[in-house]
């Protein structure tokens, strides 16, 4: 300590501590800490349930059509692999799937199994026709990778029946 410096010794408080500190500020900080821990716990619970795109019961959504069922991710991860599975229930020589452009703005398709027989561009969408042999069900799997993160809303049409699909891509 330098010359002329004088230390003041705080008085002993009624609770026995010799502190000169405003306790209200510390209590507010502790309350904020507890709220933050509850938020972190909520985020962990959402991750376990699949709301962060890495598995769990809520990762996929099932979209039902008259003659098909599409299993689409509800939550996907940026630059992470994902897939869309379409199961056709009706016996037919071919099946037609149309996906609107906002889907292709957000995702790149890595592989389609089986390959579509025909693929054509229509106004604001892409239409794929898949040949089908043998008894139903027939399944098409589209492997994809998210190129950008954010909220995505697009339309999928199967055999002329259209559904709006919403999903989020997390960073």
Describe the structure concisely.
The chain is α+β, with helices and mostly antiparallel strands and 171 residues long. The protein has helices spanning 23-49, 101-106; strands at residues 60-64, 68-73, 75-77, 81-88, 94-100, 107-113, 118-122, 125-131, 138-146, 150-158, 161-170.
Q: Are there runs of 5+ residues with pLDDT below 50, and where?
A: none
Classified by CATH, the class of the largest domain is Mainly Beta
Number of strands: 11
Strand order of the largest sheet: 3-11-10-5-8-7
Mean pLDDT score, rounded? 88
Class per helix and strand makeup: alpha+beta
Tell the overall outline. Answer: rod-shaped
Explained architecture:
Keywords: Membrane, Transmembrane, Transmembrane helix. This protein has two helices and eleven strands. With 171 residues, the protein is an alpha+beta fold. It folds into two domains: 30 residues; 111 residues, Immunoglobulin-like (Sandwich). The strands form two sheets. It has a six-stranded mixed beta sheet with strand order 3-11-10-5-8-7. A five-stranded antiparallel beta sheet has the order 1-2-4-9-6. The two termini are 52 Å apart. The model has no long low-confidence stretch (mean pLDDT 88).
